[in-house]
Amino acid sequence: MRHHRLGTTGPHVSALGLGCMGMSDLYGPSDRQESIATIHAALEAGVTVLDTGDFYGMGHNEMLIAEAIKGRPRDGFQVSVKFGALRGPAGDWLGYDGRPQAVKNFLAYTLRRLGLDHIDIYRPARLDPAVPIEETVGAIADLVTAGYVGHIGLSEVGTDTIARAAAVHPICDLQIEYSLISRGIEEAILPRCRELGIAITAYGVLSRGLISGHWQAGSTDPSDFRSRSPRFQQGNIEHNLALVEALAVIARRKSVSVAQIAIAWVAAQGEDIVPLVGARRRDRLSEALGALEVSLDAGDLAAIEAAVPKGAAAGERYNAPQMAHLDSERP
């Protein structure tokens, strides 16, 4: 397993991270024992980053990870936690809370659920429009000083917010969607992060399975949010799967899977970019790990660009209400 430093101030992390959300929430039913086995397999393969959110399954995901990491050496993994999203008992979304007192409250519950004395990387899931980012980051900085948090990250914020946050405390990484069909960060956000020495932890590298090579139209469970996601809707899904088939031609030529090509492309964009893969099963994890062995030369990259040009996807990456919460999408 290769390792990179997460920004100029962050920890050294594996070149691939494991996103754990789907083990608890939003992607339909999952198998608890297989989820834990997948986390164990990732750790044994040298993956160090376990990414979660305190609102994934309303705490369920943190408790699942706690079970998986119990008894393991603390220096063998890093837990990255997003906070701030508010949810009702029916799983509905109620907004975001970035107030300093809320930040400290969220962390107290996270530490208890995970059974840890500190969180390696702590980040607001979204910008709370009612609270200046300086106040939210300042509260996390207090927790760094107190030893409860190792490093501060951000999630789905734009260039102005990134700069304002970094002026308060060093930021190690920005977690944001980045894939062959979600390349919006390339214009301004990625250059600003590089200017400030901030890494990217890229989620959605397979666009929620859309460009994994395994997706079949009409296969979503009603509890799976992809059943309502724009890129998976009739009229868009057919167009997007045609892009995947074009990518499959390149994958077959290289004797690798479509998912491996898609992950390798993200990893090839720079050592300051760490792909997060949302594998819920050991076979999918194994496939994703194989992407680290895929070498893409200039000819491969040109062929991939021709097969899936920038901006080629049909449909937004979230529905309109969710897009409205993304500071990263504001002009």
UniProtKB/TrEMBL annotation:
<dbReference type="GO" id="GO:0005737">
    <property type="term" value="C:cytoplasm"/>
</dbReference>
<dbReference type="Pfam" id="PF00248">
    <property type="entry name" value="Aldo_ket_red"/>
</dbReference>
<dbReference type="GO" id="GO:0050236">
    <property type="term" value="F:pyridoxine 4-dehydrogenase (NADP+) activity"/>
</dbReference>
<dbReference type="InterPro" id="IPR036812">
    <property type="entry name" value="NAD(P)_OxRdtase_dom_sf"/>
</dbReference>
<feature type="domain" description="NADP-dependent oxidoreductase">
    <location>
        <begin position="16"/>
        <end position="307"/>
    </location>
</feature>
<protein>
    <submittedName>
        <fullName>Aldo/keto reductase</fullName>
        <ecNumber>1.1.1.65</ecNumber>
    </submittedName>
</protein>
<dbReference type="InterPro" id="IPR050791">
    <property type="entry name" value="Aldo-Keto_reductase"/>
</dbReference>
<dbReference type="InterPro" id="IPR023210">
    <property type="entry name" value="NADP_OxRdtase_dom"/>
</dbReference>
<keyword id="KW-0560">Oxidoreductase</keyword>
